[in-house]
Design brief:
Length: about 525
């Protein structure tokens, strides 16, 4: 997907309903299941095929093309209940929720109630940040573009009350300030906890109610909700983890993230809901004759504001933008508790595709569905980065042990590639578990210090090493993986960790674990 992942040449499992163990050889005269994506004749065939190829319990997809919405769903909502996935089934859309929150913020801008460029302390004067300069300069524009500079992942539970966003804000002085606002892009969930609080301060209402009245109701998204107690009253999907192919799927628990995450990533909706939302944005803020957002604000949201660490990729306000030579996508993805979702629009072509899946294995299925749809409906394809070579000395300069509050990352060299292994660390308990592991190959241009995952669950993800020295740490080395920053212990002093050997002399093995939001 444009955000992080692509199709993979790794082992695939398939069965008629999209889950279960793969079987080799031909069945009833049909060739063994293809490793390469077929050229499907219809959206129905594409959804069925990719759900099976990638072993996803359920997939729901909707496409907007030439003013017509086409939709299809396949598989089951849960491997336990085995209820069918339908186009009316609601699923978690994850961080696509951020674009809804940004749209509401821009409505407040339209009404003269919110200024993107004044210090955020105008609206939240008690805001505590670890860095006084950052606190003085932080604005809503920084929050909406993931350029605020403070640590972005914190999923501690501040309770289910309406004050959850306030309680999470009061703890923000314990977040690391990686850089000054506006200096760099670093994906930031916590920023949208603060966005929700600002919306509440301005309107005097609970943030979820504001989104309901300003977006869900006028867009006629009847079953869309933030709350599990509402979701269970509609046909709904359950998330799944595929941590071990030999053991199969397990149900994702808990169902959703804590309350303060709602505007950041807790919307539950259908693929068609996302298409209606996208259609409003493609129409510059209007849908079914009703003005939802000013044309100026709709266009501003999809205007590049800050480089996002990959060729062609920037962030605007809320949206991720890929400005390719032949076309431009405006999009966002989502990854929550056993759900993967993606919404991609091409405004100039009046096109959008929304895909919802109820498993962490859904990322690659979404990627291939989108790739098929681009070709089938539009005859276009995303350009892939060109690989290049780097000397062993250059590759060695990127090796070491990198750290952030919730992850420890080891980067080694094996031949002409880098190898990444990670340990996820619970901020609440300190417990550790194996995280994702993958290879990295250098891509052009070399001076950008960018790499691409060539295979596996995260295939297509671009990883880079931003150059952001400080006065105290002129040799500071950062790595940005999935938009998150981690810093190397020490300066490495030219000491390489070659050929897959960690500093303790043990061979670093590949590990995989559940993905974080």
């Amino acid at each position: 997907m444009g955000t992080d992942v692509s199709s993979s040449s790794s082992t695939r499992a398939a069965s008629g309903d999209g889950f279960g163990a793969a079987k080799s050889g031909a069945v009833d005269g049909i060739a063994a299941w293809p490793l390469a994506r077929p050229t499907y004749a219809s959206l129905e065939a594409a959804a069925q095929g990719e759900a099976a190829r990638w072993n996803v319990p359920g997939v729901s997809v909707a496409v907007l093309h030439d003013g017509v919405i086409e939709k299809y769903a396949t598989g089951v909502t849960s491997i336990v209940t085995r209820q069918p996935m339908t186009t009316d089934t609601i699923s978690q859309i994850g961080s696509i929720s951020k674009v809804f929150a940004t749209t509401v913020a821009m409505q407040l801008v339209d009404e003269g109630l919110l200024d993107l460029d004044v210090p955020i302390t105008r609206y939240v004067p008690e805001l505590p940040l670890a860095d006084a300069e950052a606190r003085a300069n932080l604005t809503m524009r920084h929050l909406l573009s993931h350029s605020g500079g403070f640590e972005g992942d914190r999923f501690l539970d501040y309770g289910r009350g309406d004050n959850a966003t306030t309680l999470s804000m009061l703890a923000m002085d314990t977040l690391k300030q990686w850089f000054q606002p506006g200096e760099l892009f670093s994906y930031c969930n916590v920023a949208f906890y603060l966005v929700a609080l600002v919306i509440e301060r301005i309107t005097g209402e609970v943030a979820e109610d504001v989104v309901q009245k300003r977006l869900f109701d006028p867009l006629k998204l009847e079953s869309a909700t933030y709350f599990a107690e509402d979701a269970i009253t509609w046909p709904h999907a359950i998330g799944h983890y595929l941590r071990d192919r030999e053991k199969g799927f397990e149900i994702a628990r808990p169902y959703s993230f804590p309350r303060q995450v709602n505007l950041c990533g807790n919307i539950v909706a259908t693929a068609e809901h996302l298409i209606r939302f996208a259609q409003m944005h493609i129409n510059d803020g209007e849908l079914d004759g009703e003005r939802i957002l000013s044309a100026e604000s709709a266009r501003l949201m999809r205007t590049p504001y800050i480089d996002a660490g990959a060729e062609y990729r920037t962030y605007g306000q809320g949206w991720c933008i890929w400005d390719y030579p032949d076309f431009k996508t405006v999009e966002h993805g989502g990854a929550t508790m056993g759900f993967r979702a993606h919404l991609t629009t091409i405004p100039e072509k009046g096109f959008a595709i929304a895909t919802l899946t109820n498993a962490d294995s859904g990322s690659s299925a979404m990627q291939d569905l989108e790739e098929w749809a681009f070709d089938h409906y539009l005859g276009v394809a995303r350009p892939k980065p060109d690989a290049t070579t780097r000397s062993k000395k250059e590759l060695d300069s990127f090796t070491g042990i990198f750290s952030r509050h919730d992850t420890r990352i080891t980067i080694t060299r094996e031949g002409d590639q880098l190898q990444v292994t990670s340990i996820d660390i619970s901020e609440k308990t300190g417990e550790e578990e194996d995280g994702l592991a993958f290879s990295l190959v250098p891509i052009k241009p070399s001076k950008a210090n960018r790499f691409r995952v060539p295979e596996g669950q995260a295939l297509g993800m671009v990883v880079d090493f931003p150059d952001l020295p400080t006065q105290d740490h002129p040799d500071r080395l950062l790595v940005r993986i999935g938009g998150r920053l981690a810093e190397r212990f020490g300066a490495n002093d030219g000491e390489a960790i070659p050929d897959g050997k960690a500093k303790n002399g043990k061979k670093s093995g590949k590990r995989s674990g559940k993905s974080k939001k």
